[in-house]
Design a protein that fits this description.
Number of domains: 3
Strand order of the largest sheet: 1-2-3-4
CATH architecture of the largest domain: Orthogonal Bundle
CATH class of the largest domain: Mainly Alpha
Low-confidence stretches: 1-16, 372-379
Helix content: 40-55%
Strand content: 5-15%
Structural class: alpha+beta
Mean pLDDT: 82
């Protein structure tokens, strides 16, 4: 290995702002200092003059305080994904479970890739691949948003020289599913007693089923004051939530507490969850899901294909119908922005018919029936 030192490195010890060139095989490498720390980087060049230009650029940037971007070729997607997870864990800016689901799909496609090589065409190829797997454009956009955040974080940390453009896909209109009262009642009565309580909470307040309703603990219910609480950090937007219980929910939740206390006596231990499994080998453990029971109940009620998230849309629409102030409604449902809330404020055919009846009352009585004029047709 041969070494060629620049004029800055003739002294025995290198100082900040100094640098040197040396070869490994036929490739020129550079060494320079920034903030008293040495950095080593392959220029990827076999031509000494080109390598010296890169060294000069690094020294200039270091001396002027501009960010130096060393070893970019070594930074991979895996490094960026790890840094993003750490960022979310430290800042709490996003739910780690949700971000992890998005990253799972990204990991399969981009794992091991050099971060600097990921560009617009790669994001489009990824979108095409996910479409082939049956993913919706909305889901793909959420995943690309996570990729974009990882790239931006790497750029902020001086591990990426430029930000690629990631184009969003055209999304379909938001789902229009919601429950009328009789349809909800038909589904509700076909569920187990404890699940009837869970779906009613979602129907009234629009709370998310898995992450909010099923995650409730007994301590979050105060039957004395008639309040139900979600802790900060338990919700998608990270903010706590408190609601006053309706008379029906007070009764239903009182019955649910009785069921849980009976389970505690049988198991001879405290059960923190408000919605635990009441029987079977998982008795006492919090319910995580009930998709199968929900789908069965919907089919039996004659509304197959309805989603539990449709309960959230229904709650928003019901609050709009009841003229609940939007600021209050958003506090109950946990919507942070009015723009997202409005997407859930769906107008149903029944709403349109009710509006038509109201409007028909405003039409003058003498103009409700128009005379029919007959015309003679000559032959």
């Amino acid at each position: 290995m041969s070494e060629t030192a620049t004029t800055e490195t003739k002294k025995p010890r290198a100082k900040p702002g100094s640098g040197m060139l040396y070869q490994r095989g036929e490739t020129w490498w550079i060494k320079y200092h920034q903030d008293g720390r040495p950095f080593y980087e392959s220029t990827g060049m076999k031509d000494e003059r080109q390598a010296r230009k890169i060294l000069h650029d690094r020294l200039t940037r270091a001396e002027t305080g501009a960010p130096v971007l060393p070893n970019l070729s070594r930074v991979t997607y895996d490094d960026a994904a790890k840094a993003l997870k750490e960022h979310y864990a430290v800042t709490g800016a996003r739910d780690l479970t949700e971000a992890g689901c998005r990253l799972t799909h990204l990991d399969r496609y981009f794992k091991g890739r050099r971060l600097a090589s990921i560009g617009t065409r790669d994001s489009e190829a990824y979108a095409l691949n996910r479409q082939g797997q049956g993913a919706s454009n909305g889901s793909i956009n959420r995943e690309l948003a996570v990729l974009g955040r990882a790239l931006k974080l790497a750029y902020e940390h001086n591990r990426l020289a430029r930000m690629p453009v990631l184009r969003k896909l055209e999304e379909s209109a938001p789902r229009q599913g919601f429950f009328e009262a009789d349809a909800f009642a038909a589904v509700q009565r076909r569920l187990a007693a404890d699940l009837q309580v869970a779906v009613t909470i979602a129907y009234v307040y629009g709370w998310r089923m898995q992450s909010e309703v099923l995650a409730l603990e007994q301590r979050q219910l105060d039957l004395g004051t008639g309040m139900l609480t979600l802790d900060p950090g338990q919700t998608k937007n990270g903010e706590g939530r408190v609601v006053a219980l309706t008379a029906d929910l007070m009764l239903l939740l009182t019955e649910q507490v009785v069921r849980v206390k009976a389970l505690e006596r049988r198991a001879q231990r405290i059960v923190p969850a408000l919605f635990p499994h009441l029987t079977g080998r998982f008795a006492g453990q919090p319910r995580r899901d009930f998709r199968r029971a929900w789908a069965t109940a919907c089919r039996a009620a004659g509304v197959p294909g309805m989603l539990r998230h449709d309960l959230r849309r229904t709650a928003v629409r019901n609050m709009e119908r009841a003229a609940v102030p939007r600021s209050v409604a958003m506090k109950l449902t946990g919507h942070r922005t009015e723009n997202v809330y409005r997407r859930y404020a769906i107008v149903s055919p029944a709403d349109l018919q009710a509006a038509a009846l109201k409007l028909s009352g405003d039409i003058p009585s003498d103009s409700r029936r128009l005379p029919i004029e007959t015309c003679a047709v000559s032959t």
